[in-house]
Amino acid sequence: QAPIKATCEDMSCKTGFPEDVHSAVVSRSVHGGQPLLNVRFRSCDGNKKIHFGSSEPEDFRVSEDGVVYAERSFQLSAEPTEFVVSAQDKETQEEWQMRVKLTPEPAFAGASGKDQKKIQDIIFPWQQYKHSSPLKRQKRDWVIPPINLPENSRGPFPQELVRIRSDRDKSLSLRYSVTGPGADQPPTGIFIINPISGQLSVTKPLDREQIASFHLRAHAVDVNGNQVENPIDIVINVIDMNDNRPEFLHQVWNGTVPEGSKPGTYVMTVTAIDADDPNAQNGMLRYRILSQAPSSPSPNMFTINNETGDIITVAAGLDREKVQQYTLIIQATDMEGNPTYGLSNTATAVITVTDVNDNPPEFTAMTFYGEVPENRVDVIVANLTVTDKDQPHTPAWNAMYRMTGGDPAGRFTILTDPNSNDGLVTVVKPIDFETNRMFVLTVAAENQVPLAKGIQHPPQSTATVSITVIDVNESPYFVPNPKPVRQEEGLLAGSVLTTFTAQDPDRYMQQTSLRYSKLSDPANWLKIDPINGQITTTAVLDRESIYVQNNMYNATFLASDNGIPPMSGTGTLQIHLLDINDNAPQVNPKEATTCETLQPNAINITAVDPDIDPNAGPFAFELPDTPASIKRNWTIGRISGDHAQLSLRIRFLEAGIYDVPIVITDSGNPHASSTSVLKVKVCQCDINGDCTDVDRIVGAGLGTGAIIAILLCIIILLILVLMFVVWMKRRDKERQAKQLLIDPEDDVRDNILKYDEEGGGEEDQ
């Protein structure tokens, strides 16, 4: 450090800078915000407001108190750095200028003994008192330049740095001290000062990576502890030494690059850090590739930006099908890559070559063969195999198959097996051997994604598939099926109804004629000839049968061949029965009740005919001529086509049960009529027309069937009583006969023994 001396101010005052050029020596490495020097400006009027400026504001800033600070961090060149400091009066706008020349200090060279530099002094700024004026002013002449101290010094310790003193130590006994981190604050004890001589020393090696600079404050007091000088700031910068190797953020770096990439394609970035000063050569790193494995197709497939660590391709020929992965050894060296003085470290970069669709699928054969039985669906008839050099189970490898010819009806489809990538030719529509005995399909295979640009291969591969249809024994089929037949009911048994035959689709098989049989005939009305299929009746066809629904009777027949295996087919015969007038109408209900007086005595009846129109209603109702009492006591009148009303002709009819015959005739051609008996119960009625003669009504309510049932019950009960009496008598006779068969010697009475014992009681009994 250059000695800093205090000079006396001239008694004659002149406002402005005391010199036109001010030279200062500063450290080579300048940090942003670092104070560099203090410019001296003399103001004869203490009330002037001076504003300082710099001609290089992006590099240097001048504060209001004249301290020049660095605006950014940079390295001073070997040549002096010059700039202009200006001062302007804010009121009068008067301006003064001074040129500042900064010279970098020479490189530090550690020395000891005789070669050690002389310890330099730092003198406190002095205070001036103007006796002619009550004004007391302190003048700061300069800012103390930083002390640069290299890290990892070997000593000896304590190592003297500078001496702090005040120019008043000639007249006063002073004591010196330093405060701040590294002195009396953690980490304490790194810097010490001799309180008498002011000698500042360092006690141990410094580590810039832990603390890059120390900011201390020096104090000077008298023996009574009174402050003699204002404290001064001392900045100690720890000069970086190249004591740290570069360290990669990861020991293994992984990256990818598509195959076929052009030279200059970005791959990945590797990054290393150095704990040394990044603004000095010690922390400036350079990257390079030491090795590449494998070395095909070129030993220099990649290059690295030596400053940023960006890895890019430098040669063409990346082919995943040949080399799937490259391993690079990357070296980072500080000292800007100086192989002699720089420290190095290595890491591994693993570059995976990703697949692109540069290989189309290729069929393993030009023709594939398969066979399928006729009439079978959802069966695989052929496996189409392809090869694809791209990465399996990716869109560039997955194959899609399609038919380009030979299947206009769409009987086949091709599915892709997701595991093997094979094409599965599958039948989706039945195939008739008698129509098509062989198919020759043209198929194509291509990937799910299109081929990459610039690939010279065709995008798809083609092949043919020859499929043979196998003839199998097919079931006979009736024509037509179902077969409709219209026939009037009443057809007599033994009549020929129709002929129902089937056809055998197997024209190329040696088989005998078909045989027929009956499979379903609910009413058992029909039979079929087993040879020619002629159907004849075995009973009268009746439309009113319970087996006929909506005038339709269904019967099912079977046709069988003698193939291997035997096959059969069914056919349905639908007989539509036409109605004839074969049923006479009947009265409904069969029983009715009326009063014995004339009013009210009407009975509503309905005619029921199983036949349908025109062989049913409207109906004609009338009473027979015999017996004569019917027409004398009763009268009948038609209400509508199906309904009539029966009522008394006379004023009074004795209570009882009367059988009233009614003749009903339908509208068929010819007409059909019948005489139905209506059982009428005549009883005494109240004013509302309800029967009041309950006993007689109940008696009258017992019909012939009910009376017969009661008599049968009584007879059965008498038979049971008679059988029980006979059984009891027979049991008594058997008991008496058994007693006569007992042997007299076994008589219990002769086997009783008498003992001369007393006290018998219940136990002897």
From TrEMBL:
Keyword entries, A-Z: Calcium, Cell adhesion, Cell junction, Cell membrane, Glycoprotein, Membrane, Metal-binding, Phosphoprotein, Repeat, Signal, Transmembrane, Transmembrane helix
CDD domains given in the database record: Cadherin_repeat
The keyword S-adenosyl-L-methionine is annotated on this UniProt entry: no
Domain Cadherin per the UniProt entry, residue ranges: 141-248, 249-363, 364-478, 479-587, 586-692
Keyword Glycoprotein belongs to the record: yes
PROSITE patterns listed in its UniProt record: CADHERIN_1, CADHERIN_2
Topological category with respect to the lipid bilayer: Single-pass type I membrane protein
A GO molecular-function descriptor: beta-catenin binding
GO term, biological process aspect, one: cell-cell adhesion mediated by cadherin
Subcellular location: Cell junction, Adherens junction; Cell junction, Desmosome; Cell membrane, Sarcolemma; Cell membrane
InterPro entries: Cadherin, Cadherin-like_dom, Cadherin-like_sf, Cadherin_CS, Cadherin_pro_dom
Membrane spanning stretches: 706-728
Entry GO CC: adherens junction; apical part of cell; catenin complex; cell surface; cytoplasm; desmosome; intercalated disc; lamellipodium
Broad class of where this protein is predominantly found: other
Gene3D superfamilies (UniProt xref): Cadherins
Lineage: superkingdom: Eukaryota
Full protein name: Cadherin-2
Organism of this sequence: Podargus strigoides (Tawny frogmouth)
Organism phylogeny: Eukaryota, Metazoa, Chordata, Craniata, Vertebrata
